[in-house]
From TrEMBL:
UniProt xrefs under InterPro entries: TIM22
Annotated protein name in UniProt: Uncharacterized protein
Domain of life: Eukaryota
Any coiled-coil regions, as ranges: none
Organism in which the protein naturally occurs: Linum tenue
Subcellular location: Membrane
Keywords, sorted A to Z: Membrane, Transmembrane, Transmembrane helix
GO molecular function: mitochondrion targeting sequence binding; protein transmembrane transporter activity
Major subcellular location class: membrane
GO biological process, one term: protein insertion into mitochondrial inner membrane
Region (Disordered): 1-31
Membrane topology value: Multi-pass membrane protein
A single cellular component GO annotation: TIM22 mitochondrial import inner membrane insertion complex
Amino acid sequence: MASGDSKPQEGDAASKPPSAERQSPSPSLSENWKERILLPTLVAGAGGGGYGLVSKHRTVQGFPHISAAYAANFAIVAGCYCGAREFVRVTRKSGPDDLLNSAIAGFSTGALLGRLQGGQLGAIRYSFIFAIAGTSVDFATIKLRPKLRSLKESIFGDEKNEGGGWKLPVWSPIQVLDEDALAKKEAREKQLKAQRLALIKLTKEES
């Protein structure tokens, strides 16, 4: 009887799908918050401050005031949008590159800020503007991310490479040569110098 009772238990354990045993952890709002919320907010604030310097209102209100106002507005918009995007990502339990999160976050952020700024009509207008702009920026970021990563690796080196560190890119006209490259360069210069001296000597003998 004991052996017969143990068979269903073994069958129940074997019938469990592997996915139930190893479930992927649910996304967290604090995951990469510096990269996905804080950094875009700071960049938007800096961009807003720079835009204030060339704004037509700078002569009326002054450089410091208008730059601070634009920087604050840009930072608030970017912070609200990025925070809403991460909240939607966690709620939907989706990946960080899901553009539907960007569309939902842009629509909700635009509706909220537009309502505060221009009433119901402003909420409708800004919701579509923010949804389109936010999704477009995130799409461009996803496409440019591999190129930015390769540029970072070309400048700072690969993290897996022990000899990695800050270095000039390959396309830079100024390069720091290592010992082998420096030795080859010196040998090449000596060879060219010897050829020039031989050519000068031959020219003198002919004359």
